[in-house]
Structure formats: structure tokens, C-alpha cells
User: Fold this.
Amino acid sequence: MGALEIPDKLLQRASRVPGLGERVARFIKLEVAQFEMRQHRFRPETLALVARAQAEAGQKRAAGFDLDEEREALLRRLDQMTTSEAP
Assistant:
């Protein structure tokens, strides 16, 4: 990732804000530091699991995934796992 892409219309408006470049740079530095901290905090297996889940979610979204439908199915499965079958 080289330069950030900023739409021309927004760039014109943003250029009038004093000190915006420094604040954006500070924000990016903080985001990088947080990312690096997460990389050290979690095991590689955990990060790989999250990456796979994010990729799967992206594929589902692209295929027209219905979040409400999936939520209901999850709640039904959870209810089945936690509800006693005894009379």
C-alpha cells in the first residue's frame, strides 16, 4: 500500500483543515501499533482462525448471505444444545 486514495472532492475540502496531515499520520501510527500488539498477543493459530472466518464471511456476503437467517439458525442450534430433552 503506497499512498492513500482520497477522492478529489474530499481532498480539496481536507486541504483547508490545518494540521490534518499530522493528525492522520498520528492515527495511522496508532493503528499500526495496535495491529502489531495484536499480532504478538495472539497465537498464530488464533490469528489464522480469525483470518479464515473473515474470508468465509466475505465469501458469504458476496454470495448474498442473509445475516438475519443465519442469526436465527445459530440461535436455534444454541437452544438445541442448551435445552434439556428430559420431560
Observations:
- The helical segments are 8-14, 20-41, 44-62, 67-82.
